[in-house]
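2024-03-11 09:14:02 DEBUG pipeline.ingest accepted 1 chain
2024-03-11 09:14:02 DEBUG pipeline.ingest length=123
2024-03-11 09:14:03 DEBUG pipeline.predict start
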Amino acid sequence: QLQASGGGLVQVGDSLRLSCTIFALDRAMGWFRQTPGKEREFVAVISRRGGVTSYSDSVKGRFTISRDNDKSIVYLQMNTLKPEDTAVYYCAAAFANARTFYAPTQETSYAYWGQGTLVTVSS
């Protein structure tokens, strides 16, 4: 079961770290976000052993995804937060895939979703 945590209310320029329990160590893990009236969008993904990461253009250089398989946790470190980062953030586990470097960015590649955690960036 996926459990995301770490959301909250912060100011512009602040940092926040989201955490999510890893569904299974053999799965790529991703973060997505959604704001009211918009479709859920990809934020970041990390392959099952952490060797490959990918980010959306809107967060590249500010957000970092990582995972600690010993603790079964995946993190999303968010720095230099902007008001447009305000959203409900979801972690998700990808469908199983034999490729070690599998790191999908499409929502349809994900099999399991956690409940969201709300991040609000106030200006």
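2024-03-11 09:14:41 DEBUG pipeline.report Residues 86 and 120 are 5 Å apart (CA to CA).
2024-03-11 09:14:41 DEBUG pipeline.predict end
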